[in-house]
Structure formats: C-alpha cells, structure tokens
Write a structure and sequence with these properties.
The chain has one domain (3-115). By secondary structure, it is an alpha+beta fold. Strand 1 and strand 2 (12-15) form a beta hairpin. The radius of gyration is 14 Å and the shape is globular. It is built from 3 helices and 7 strands; from the N terminus they run ββββαβαββα. The protein has helices at residues 40-53, 65-70, 106-115; strands spanning 3-6, 12-15, 19-27, 30-38, 55-57, 84-91, 98-104. It binds zinc ion (ZN) (2 copies). Residues 74, 76-77, 79, 104-105, 107-108 line the site of one zinc ion.
Length: 120
C-alpha cells in the first residue's frame, strides 16, 4: 500500500486503496470531465450524494441528448430552469462499479465542478 492524494473536494494525502470517480458534465454544448482517486471516507461522502440526488443507471448506459434538453428541473435542488447532464462512473474499492445520472442547474453544476474538479 502506498500513499495517494485523495482529490475529492480539498485534496489531501491518505493511506490505503483508492476508489475512483469518473465524472462528465455536458454543459452549454461543451463537456467537462475529471477522474478522481479518493480515500474511503470521501468515497462514502461522494456516494451518499450520488445515491440521494442522482439516478442509478446501468454502467455504460447512454442518456439521449433530447432527454437532457427537455428536462427543466434540477435533480439536486429541484429548481426549474435550464439544466446540464451530469454522468458519474464510480469504482468503489471492493464493490461493484456504479453509474449515476442527474440533470443539474447552473448553481449545482458550479458546486459539482468545484468538488469533482471538472475541467474541459
Ligand atoms: Zn479524502
Ligand atoms: Zn440545482
């Protein structure tokens, strides 16, 4: 076991196996993405958010662009308005891969971008 930086939210070092979180956000016609390695604790924090606010989808499932465009309610804060499609693939240590999808408003997209360090 080596030392890895956990990159969820505020980066810090930890010891032990890393879980992986791959994120994609379709936002205003462009795509932001990130690949994070997280400690066990932050994997649990991230997963709790995904489980409570996002839809569990089959790993590799595609959500159609039309579905993204027609959605007008944010899955996270339930505000009506334009939304962006957020996809998460999670690879928790010792557990099955999981995939999530949510429509997020601009405000929630901003906080997700910050926490998951999404970049173009
Ligand atoms: Zn951590
Ligand atoms: Zn929102």
């Amino acid at each position: 076991m080596g030392m890895f930086p956990c990159t969820y939210d505020r980066p810090h070092r930890f010891q032990g196996k890393a879980s992986a979180i791959y994120s994609n956000l379709a936002h205003n016609g462009s795509t932001l993405g990130s690949k994070l390695r997280t400690c066990r604790e932050h994997a649990a924090v991230a997963r709790e958010f995904f489980e409570s606010k996002m839809h569990l989808i089959a790993v590799g499932e595609q959500v159609l662009e039309e579905d993204i465009q027609t959605s007008i309610v944010c899955d996270v804060c339930e505000t009506s308005g334009p939304t962006s499609g957020l996809f998460i693939n999670m690879y928790p240590v010792g557990e099955e891969d999981r995939a999530y999808y949510a429509d997020v408003c601009g405000t929630c997209a901003g906080s997700v971008v910050q926490k998951l360090h999404l970049t173009p």
